[in-house]
């Protein structure tokens, strides 16, 4: 009977799941950023960590390279320790407040004491080159027994 075509109100399965996947990934990324942004209470002591800096980690044939985002941290006050199963970076980023008559409208950059501990599994490492450049701490771990990276 030459009737009207039945309207379809649903998206194709591919488009629907593609949209849902993109939204899920966006929510996970947002949750991860919020987790790092907010202060975490980890204990009553004066040196308790209150934030974790973000880090990029790359593996090379020689070992591992880490880049920690540490804007405003004095490089002389950064402590790097390597244990058999973890790399730990700790320091304090002081709050940078304006004059006594200013009003803080937004403070998004974390401040205070931080500790970032990265678990290491598998190969044994030794501390290679480290440098602080443009607000980032670069740390290189060299696989034990590899003599490259020792200047």
Can you write the helix and strand succession as a string?
HEEEEEEE
Beta-strand percentage?
25-35%
- Please state the second-level CATH architecture of the domain at 42-96 and 111-151: Sandwich
- Overall CATH class of the domain at 42-96 and 111-151: Mainly Beta
Integer average pLDDT = 80
Percent helix, as a range, is 10-25%
- Lateral strand order in the biggest sheet: 1-2-7-6
Distance between the termini: 86 Å
Low-confidence stretches: none
Derived structural class: alpha+beta
Report on this model:
The protein is an alpha+beta fold and 151 residues long. It has a domain at 42-96 and 111-151: Sandwich (Immunoglobulin-like). Helices cover 17% and strands 33% of the residues. It contains one helix and seven strands. The protein has one helix at 13-37, and strands at residues 55-59, 63-69, 79-83, 86-93, 112-119, 125-133, 136-143. The strands form two sheets. The protein has a four-stranded antiparallel sheet with strand order 1-2-7-6, with no helix packed on it. Strands 3-4-5 form a three-stranded antiparallel sheet, with no helix packed on it. Strand 6 (125-133) and strand 7 form a beta hairpin. The longest helix has 25 residues, at 13-37. The radius of gyration is 23 Å and the shape is flat. The N and C termini lie far apart (86 Å).
């Amino acid at each position: 009977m030459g009737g009207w075509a039945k309207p379809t109100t649903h998206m194709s399965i591919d488009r629907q799941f593609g949209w849902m996947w993109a939204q899920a990934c966006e929510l996970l990324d947002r949750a991860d950023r919020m987790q790092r942004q907010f202060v975490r209470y980890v204990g009553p002591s004066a040196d308790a960590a209150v934030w974790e800096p973000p880090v990029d980690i790359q593996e090379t044939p020689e070992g591992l390279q880490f880049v920690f985002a540490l804007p405003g941290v004095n490089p002389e006050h950064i402590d790097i320790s390597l244990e058999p199963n973890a790399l730990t970076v700790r320091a304090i980023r002081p709050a940078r407040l304006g004059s006594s008559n200013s009003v803080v409208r937004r403070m998004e950059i974390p401040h205070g004491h931080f500790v970032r501990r990265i678990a290491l599994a598998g190969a044994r490492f030794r501390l290679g080159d480290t440098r602080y450049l443009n607000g980032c701490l670069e740390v290189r771990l060299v696989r034990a027994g590899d003599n490259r990276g020792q200047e």
